[in-house]
Amino acid sequence: DIGVTGVQTCALPIWQMADTYARQLAMQRVFHHYDEIGTWQTEHGQYAEHEALQHARTYWNAKLEKPKFIANGLFGGSPDAVADDFGCDFKCPTSMQKWLEYAIEKVSPQQHYQCQMYMMLTGFDTWFIYAYLTETVRMGEFGLTYPVEPKNRAIKIPIEFDPMFPEQLQERTELFMPIVETYIELFSKLK
Q1: With 80 as the cut, is the pLDDT of residue 38 above it?
Q2: Pick the residue with more confidence: 16 or 187?
Q3: Which of 82, 64, 173 is nearest to 121 (CA)?
Q4: What 3-state DSSP class applies to 66?
Q5: Do residues 18 and 176 make contact, with C-beta atoms less than 8 angstroms apart?
């Protein structure tokens, strides 16, 4: 669980992410352009999401669906999947060791806040991290497979909604938007 203390101890990484996001948001607003930036690891995760959804429908909940983009004021997101009263975010690690870390270390602060945001947008009280183990493209090229039965390839971690999150997010937004405006001003001079 990440309470108020957890929020304070991870503030620096969150603000580093906030600055990066502020730059991206300003670039998108000024230039109406979105860069597709990623590593082979993020590409693996994106490509495997459909497979993870099929796995979750087969072995967990057949009602899971991929929703459309959800917006609420300044905030929005595209959850990986939702059912009647919960949602989930698929994580597709690139190794068995990284997958097993979900059983030991659970979720990162960033993943926790991502789930909080989706719960705020959807109104759900529970969200799940669904860590799905699937082979990488390179493993497939060599015919390698993980020694884990298909039915056992998911680690599900429940995240409960923090009722303080919307208020904390609003406070952070009041600090965040001036950063975005600063970058918009800078980037507008370059257009």
Answers
A1: no
A2: 187
A3: 82
A4: coil
A5: yes
